[in-house]
Design a protein that fits this description.
By secondary structure, this protein is mostly helical. It has one domain: His-Me finger endonucleases (His-Me finger endonuclease fold, 3-Layer(aba) Sandwich), CATH 3.40.1800.10. It is 53% helix and 7% strand. It contains 5 helices and 2 strands. A two-stranded antiparallel sheet has the order 1-2.
Length: 122
């Protein structure tokens, strides 16, 4: 809760919490958009317009498996390099999780490919 210059607020914490809860309930879509905008800016340093541009460039599809957004239960996530923070592309949650589970290590991915190839014909 934002306080005035004197450090005091016109709302007590309990009343302000009730007010916020009611506002979010009455303004679900607006609150959702505000949350999304803050999340994209804080986590990835991108704007909703950047996300929309990426989405359009990818034709609404995951950059790896090519499944379209309309066939997914969650929105496409922003994939990024965890070391540098560089934003890459938009991925479905399964592809994004796979990259994370394999620690973004191309050697592990190649080992998985070799393993699957080995068992493909058997």
């Amino acid at each position: 809760m934002k306080a005035g210059k004197d450090g005091f607020s016109t709302w007590c914490k309990d009343c302000y919490a009730v007010f916020q809860k009611q506002w979010r309930k009455d303004n679900k879509e607006r609150h959702k958009l505000t949350q999304r905008k803050s999340y994209l800016k804080m986590m990835f340093k991108i704007t909703p317009e950047d996300y929309t541009r990426m989405f359009t460039e990818q034709k609404g599809r995951c950059a790896i498996c090519q499944i379209h957004q309309t066939n997914l239960s969650k929105i496409l996530g922003v994939d990024h390099n965890h070391t540098t923070g560089q934003v890459r592309e938009l991925l479905c949650s399964k592809c994004n999780s796979a990259i994370g589970l394999l620690k973004e290590n191309p050697v592990l991915f190649q080992t998985c490919i070799s393993y699957l190839d080995k068992w493909r014909s058997k």
